[in-house]
Write a structure and sequence with these properties.
Mean pLDDT: 91
CATH architecture: 3-Layer(aba) Sandwich
Shape: globular
Strand order of the largest sheet: 2-1-3-4-5
Oligomer: single chain
Number of strands: 5
Number of domains: 1
């Protein structure tokens, strides 16, 4: 079973992602803030094959800086990362790509293709997600 952890402060969109991924047979935990995300990461340890999803649209969390911080602290482990952004916010996409998210997609694409995107990331670095 594919496991994912998502930082999505927007409760409605978090619920939508959760429903989509659970319907596809995935296990997904959704947290609403950075503190809860860090707690979950600490509890889960190095979760091989787990995917971390980060909302890059949240004005209270700098998703690119968060990813850098998690890597520097050594708590990210082998997790693959998926960031999503508002399609009009090109700078959020560019910053996320520059810091090394494995995949950065518009919010609408995550809503449409979430299960396929998460599965491809969980399958490993060689899997196609385009």
């Amino acid at each position: 079973m594919v496991r994912a952890l998502a930082l999505v402060p927007d409760l409605l969109f978090g619920s939508r992602i959760q429903g989509t991924l659970r319907a596809a047979g995935f296990e997904l935990a959704v947290v609403s803030d950075e503190r809860l995300l860090r707690e979950q990461l600490a509890e889960r340890g190095d979760a091989e094959g787990e995917v971390l999803i980060v909302d890059l649209t949240d004005p209270d969390v700098d998703g690119a800086e968060l990813l850098r911080s998690l890597r520097d602290a050594g708590v990210l482990g082998p997790r693959r990362t998926l960031g999503f952004y508002a399609h009009v916010d090109v700078s959020a996409r560019e910053r996320a790509e520059a810091v090394g998210f494995d995949l950065v997609v518009p919010r609408s694409r995550l809503a449409r293709e979430g299960a396929d995107l998460v599965q491809a990331l969980a399958d490993g670095p060689g899997a196609s997600v385009d």
